[in-house]
Design brief:
With 106 residues, this protein is of the alpha+beta class. The chain has helices at 24-29, 32-36, 40-52, 56-75, 84-94; strands at residues 3-8, 15-20, 79-80.
Length: 106
Amino acid sequence: MATVVMMRNPQTGIIKKGFVGFSWTTLFFGGFPALFRGDWLMGAILLFLGIVTFGVSGLIAAFIYNKTYTTKLVENGYQFADSEALNALARAKLGVSMVDPVPSVT
């Protein structure tokens, strides 16, 4: 089951949910969870692959989609904004190092 970790973009203040772990919703509903999250390209790809492979691709996508989505949020400037335990868990599962939000002056 996926773990939800809150993420915040420090420049815009927008808060989104990041997900880490197996995606049951992607397994059962294909690309629709991606579409509902606003991830239009991945949603379209997953829906297309689901049709072409008669749903078999959903099993593979369920293992990788949450990591892909949350990594994309990190690349777009979002930072983990949940409890330190959840932040550490998400960083470990995504392979993201802790970034100092305030640059140090030397």
